[in-house]
Write a structure and sequence with these properties.
Proliferating Cell Nuclear Antigen, five-stranded antiparallel β-sheet, DNA repair, nucleus, DNA damage
Length: about 375
């Protein structure tokens, strides 16, 4: 009898990189689909991390079961007209990551198993001990034989095969934190490094609340503030470089703008360009359209400790898409480009295509604070 699911990868470091981005909880829900593996973690229904391991990450990907129709429908906000259920189960994410580390995959990019997400990422190929040649003749096989079976992880290296089996658990019928895609009122795309640096700067004051402010008509156009901590409130503003001359709807960017364009109205005339909408210089896309009930500015508060949990993804991603809906749900969708040499997080400027390699996405969703006093409450911890 053929196993329900089998996949093989010659670069398991990619799997570790993506899964470690959502390593905020001890357990993860895994869903097997024809297009890839979906890992989901959550804490207290106020934060959710989603990582999708696309089938293109694997050298071979075999799924031997047809999807089962779900007559009860789905509460997820997706574009599919048919709601189907694919095999899903719960597995220990911490054990899975530790398994990859035991096999030495983590050593390629994290000497001694220690990593500071506040430090800039280095190219692992620059080390003589992490050269791409060390990855030759290594493969990682994931296998799920049938419903209720363990998740088998087999690492083969230089003819030596090591197998680890992780116990799987029945998944609860939990729904995702809903992001209303038809009610998006804010979409900002920028280099992930800019967001990571801003959060690290605010974190130095040990705040409890992250205040997000965005406006399309007046400054500050986009600002992040840390409040509620033992020190005074601090703010990072993403401003327009007024010294840049706007020509033909694009900014002639200076050295500090990293060649990111400023969104403006289409047109080649200088007169039209000067009347174009302004946007923070570091942004590639800046769309803010709050409903009339909010006024002209979007202002939402989030628990800073939860935002901090996305720091790992911020540090390895190329770009981040910051989206918010009418209900205040915040989505941080990170684009992570992986190449054959294990390099991640390489800068991608506006108007540029991603470097050759596999592009993957990690998504974090956050529920807003209804009252600043809510930030004083302890964050629920999964003790299981």
């Amino acid at each position: 009898m053929e196993p329900l699911f089998t996949c093989v990868s010659n670069n398991a470091h990619h799997l570790y990189t993506l899964l470690s981005c959502i390593g905020i909880a001890s357990k993860a829900t895994v869903q097997i689909t024809p297009d890839g593996l979906r890992f989901s973690v959550e804490e207290g229904r106020v934060i959710q991390g989603l990582a999708f391991l696309d089938k293109s990450l694997f050298n071979s990907y075999t799924f031997n079961q047809q999807p089962v129709p779900n007559n009860q429908g789905s509460t997820e906000n997706d574009d599919s007209s048919e709601h189907i259920t694919y095999p899903h189960f719960v597995v220990s994410l911490s054990a899975l990551l530790e398994t990859l580390k035991i096999f030495g995959i983590n050593d390629l990019n994290e000497p001694n198993g220690i990593r500071d997400t506040n430090l800039p990422q280095t190219n692992p190929a620059s080390s003589a001990f992490s050269a791409p040649t060390l990855l030759m003749d290594r493969s990682c096989t994931l296998q799920y034989a049938q419903h209720g079976s363990p998740l088998s992880i087999a690492i083969t290296e230089s003819g030596v095969k090591t197998t680890c089996e992780l116990v799987t658990y029945e998944a609860e019928d939990a729904t995702d934190i809903p992001l209303q895609r038809d009610a998006i009122i804010m979409k900002i795309i920028m280099r992930s490094a800019w967001l990571h640096n801003a959060i690290a700067e605010l974190d130095s004051s040990n705040p409890t609340i992250l205040k997000l402010s965005a406006c399309a008509t007046r400054e500050p156009f986009f600002a992040l503030s840390g409040a509620g901590g033992p020190f005074s409130e601090s703010t990072v503003e993403f401003s327009v470089d007024q010294h840049n001359e706007i020509v033909g709807g694009a900014s002639q960017a200076g050295p500090q703008s990293q060649s990111h364009k400023v969104l403006a109205d289409d047109g080649s005339s200088r007169a039209r360009a000067t009347r174009a909408k302004l946007a923070p210089t570091v942004t590639e896309t800046f769309l803010v359209s709050p409903p009339s009930s909010m006024g002209e500015r979007i202002a939402q508060n989030y628990r800073f400790a939860l935002i901090r949990k996305a720091a790992r993804a911020m540090s390895v991603a190329n770009k981040v898409s910051i989206r918010g809906d009418r209900q205040g749900v915040l989505s941080l969708q990170f684009m992570i480009e992986l190449d054959e040499n294990n390099a991640v997080g390489r800068p991608v400027g506006a108007g540029m295509k991603a470097p050759a390699g596999t592009v993957c996405f990690v998504d974090f969703r956050f529920v807003p604070l209804l009252d600043e006093e809510d930030a004083e409450m302890d964050v629920p911890v999964d003790n299981e």
